[in-house]
What does this fold into?
Amino acid sequence: DMTGSLRAHRVAPRELERGQASVLLTGEQSNSNVRVGDDLLLKLFRRVSVGHNPDIEVLAALSETGSAEIVPLVGWLDSTDDDGVLDLAMLSDFLRTASDGWDLALTSVRDLFAERDLHPDEVGGDFAAESHRLGVTAARLHADLAAALPRDTWSGAQITAVTERMRGRLTAAAEQVPEVAEHTAALAGAFDAMDKLSGGVAVQRVHGDFHLGQTLRTMDGWRVIDFEGEPATPLTERTELDCPLRDVAGMLRSFDYAAQSQWADLLGDHQLAQRAREWAERNRAAFLDGYAEDSGADLTGSAAVLLRAYETDKAVYEAVYEVRNRPTWLPIPLRAISRLAHDTGGAS
It folds into this structure.
C-alpha cells in the first residue's frame, strides 16, 4: 500500500548538492517559496488538489522539449491518498540575476511621471521595446505549449458554452458592483459577438493567469513563470484547453494596472492621468505587435472579437476582486469596463 508515501521525481538526471542553506522568501505569494543554495527554488503548494498540479504538468512538458521561454523544472514531490495523487512541491532553477516584470514596468511608469511634461516615447525609461519582446516571448510560449501538450478546435456549441460562463460572471459582478451594472448590456455585446463565431477557434493549454508579475527579465530575454493558474479555481477548469488570446488579454489588462496603480495615489492630477493612459496604450500596442509578428497571427476580424470578449471577461473579474479586496483600486477595472462598453471593435 503506497498511500501516504512521499515520492520524488526528476525531469532529467542532475547532481544536487546536499546540505545547502535554505531561505524562505517573503512577499505576495499564493505558495511558500524557499531558495535552496544559490541556484534552486523549492515551491511548496498551499492548496493541494487530487490530480497533477498544472505548474508541474506544464513545466515538465516544456522542460523536456527545451523551451527557452520558461524557468526549467528540476523535479517534484507527490504523495497519494484514497482519491489519488497529490502534488506537494516542485523544484526549479532559481534565476538570481532576473528582474520581476511588474517591478520593471512600475519603474518605467515612475520615470515617466517624474518627467511629467514628456510623453512615454520621449523618456529614458520607455518600456515599449521590452513590451514588444514580451509579446514575442508570449507567442513562442504558446507555440511551445501547442507542440508539447494537447490541442483542439472549438465548435460553435463549445464557443456558446464559454460565452455562457462569461455572461454568468457578468451577471454576478453586476449584483456586487453597481458601476458594472450600468454597462451590463454593452459588455454583454462582446460575448454576443463571440457567440456568433461559427467555430474553428484553435484551443490549447495556456498559461491561464498571465500578467507582468508572472514574468522575469533575464540577460537573454523574458521568462514566464507560475503555470498553476488561479489557485482558487477548480483544478479541472485550470487544465481546460482555451484560446491563447485569453493570455494576451490578461497581459493587456496588466499594462493598464501597471500604469494606473501608480496614478491611483495621485488622483486629481489630470496631466499624469493622461501620461498613464499614453503609457498603457503604447505598451499594449507594442506587446500586440510583438505577438503578431512572431506568431503570424492576424489580430483583426474574429481574433479581435475574441480578444475583446476575453478582455471584457477579465475586467469584470477584476472589478469583483477589487471591490472585495482593494476598494481603492476599483477605478482601474472600472475605467477599462467603461472603455470596453463603448468599444465595438478590437481590444487594442
Notes: The domain at 7-93 is CATH 3.30.200.20 (Phosphorylase Kinase; domain 1). The chain has a mean pLDDT of 92.
